[in-house]
Amino acid sequence: MVQAIDQRLSKGFSEHVEEEKRSRSLVISGLSEPSASASRSEKLNDLETKVDAVLDILKVECRPVEAYRMGNVVDGRP
Q1: What pTM value is reported for the model?
Q2: How many domains does the chain have?
Q3: Is 51 helix (H, G, I), strand (E, B) or coil?
Q4: With CB atoms counted within 10 Å of each terminal CB, which end of the chain scores lower, N or C?
Q5: Is 72 part of any domain?
Q6: What is the DSSP letter of 71?
Q7: Where is the composition biased (Basic and acidic residues) (predicted)?
């Protein structure tokens, strides 16, 4: 019984953390991809630079905690 209660609390806490994280998330679409030959660090720097530029335009005075690309690279699309 204690184990069942512990599992419920853990699940509830996990869901709360995920909900909180999503409430602070921002999705930016349409950023161009770096060149396919770019190194991992160059790709990360490219993404951070582009996200910072968008936040500067929006006059957001904070830095992102995380930034990552979602989806797959498709030729001819940003």
Answers
A1: 0.69
A2: 1
A3: helix
A4: N
A5: no
A6: S
A7: 13-23
**What percent of the chain is predicted at pLDDT more than 70?**
81
Residue 42 pLDDT exceeds 70: yes
Asked if residue 76 belongs to a domain, the reply is no
Does residue 70 form part of some domain? no
Residue 64 near residue 55 (C-beta atoms within 8 A):
yes
Say if residue 33 is exposed, middle or buried (CB neighbours under 10 Å; 0-12, 13-18, 19+).
Answer: middle
Confidence of residue 6 (pLDDT cuts 50, 70, 90): low
**In which residue are the tokens 């989806």 written?**
71
- Residue 6 located in a structural domain: yes
Residue 67 contacts residue 51 (beta carbons within 8 Å): yes
Residue type, 56: D
